[in-house]
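Lab notebook: predicted structure, single chain.

Context: the supervisor wants predicted structures on file for every construct in the current expression panel, including those that have not yet been purified. This is the next one on the list. No modifications to the sequence; it matches the entry in the shared construct table.
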Amino acid sequence: MKGFKNIWFYSVMIFVSLDGVVLNAQTDTICFNDTILYTIPGQENSVYDWVISGGSVIYASIPEDSVIVVWNESPGLHAIEVTRSDENYCSSEPERLEVYVYQPVIDLGDYMDICDGSTEWLLLEPDFEEYFWNGQPGTNEFEVSTEGIVNLEVKDKYGCWAGDSIFVIEKMNPEPDFTVNADIPNRTVYLTNNSDSTWHYYWDFGDGSYSNEYNPGIHTYIHPGSYEITLTASNDGCSGSVSQVIRIAESLLADFTAVYEGCAPVEVTFINQSTGADSYYWDFGNGKYSTAEDPVVLYSEAGIYKVSLYAIRDTISSILKKTIIVNKAPVAAFIADPPETTVFNDISFINESSDAVYCLWDFGDGETSSLYEPSHRYSSSGLYDVSLSVWSEAGCFDSVLINNAVTVRPDCRMLFPNGFIPNKNGPGEGYYDPAQITDNNEIFHPIYENIETYELKIYNRWGELIFISRNIDIGWDGYYKGKLAPQDTYIYQAKAICSTGQELSTIGSVTLIH
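Prediction complete. Output recorded below exactly as produced.
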């Protein structure tokens, strides 16, 4: 019988040619240390001689027609031969069976180190059919987390077994330690490594920065915030870490802004621009205080005020002082003199303001003035509201409005010419047409407004009354007793009562011209 098989990377030829002799339990591939019984049907008066290579005979029968062989010398290609001798001492040709002794091999090594609290894995190639770790079935992977001996037995696809063991040693992890001191205003920390200087170190400052130095010393943070500083120490393959969280606050700095100059009374809003503070204390320089973040303060009196802000964090503080200037505001005041008049008469406005350097008047009729004490003439009767706005040298402002400050009555007047030329065609009745007043110079009469009652008397140079009229529409035509009066200068006297009740009286002279 001939056969061929692939066993791993070996090519094994098995030849069996025993001329009809049968070997029980024969195999072409066996496992190292296998014990196999080989038997040949014996013949009477025959003796058998067995030659074994790679194994040991541990039993032979009489007449040695069977043997038990332990294949324990070495793995590889071996053979078993048997020769039969009869009673005449004639020997047959040896019969030979080639066998391949297979021994799987595993090597876990002598020992392995694991770090305290860590897990390691023992890994084998997945070439075996069965795995028994410490007597328990498993796979080609085994998790190791404690110290001790790990035993492994494996069976390959040929049913052959192999075993090995390894000692697991648990090592202590480094336990690093460090101290940190913070310089908060400068956002800087001072680091001190209190660990074994022979270890290897890795610092993580929590802001994306790292260091492998034993003592990095100083580290500065760009931005405020909370940072976790982690120190990792490594030694002999094991590592340990320790962390501390620090809070880097903004630099403690007192700062604020406000309107630093105004006019009394002024309400000042203080805008707090401090950094790094937990609380605040304000001294406004006017006897008032506050712990608010953005207080509002009313300064009623003019003056210069020193404002102090204390920005506080824990037991430290930052102080900032600034000056608030409150200027004295002007006070607008005035009187109209006279407060009552007629149209086209001047009214004087007396300025009684204080601390004013610039003024603006509004007379209520659309007219204004920037004079300090102006006079004004109204062209229409009525009641007028007058306002005065004033500014101080510092630009502070005040104004006052007096309703019905001025009363302007309609104009009551009568104006007489100083001469006229009478009509020489004879006396008339003295009537005149006011519409023709600019063209009619033949009658002596007044130009008037708002006259209710009226009396006009004309006297010659000797004091003789030569004309009288109580009708304002009838004037003197220059005739006396039906005759043209001599060319001369005459005295007139006029009295009138206005529609407002005002009395007018005037005396003048008029020349009669022929």
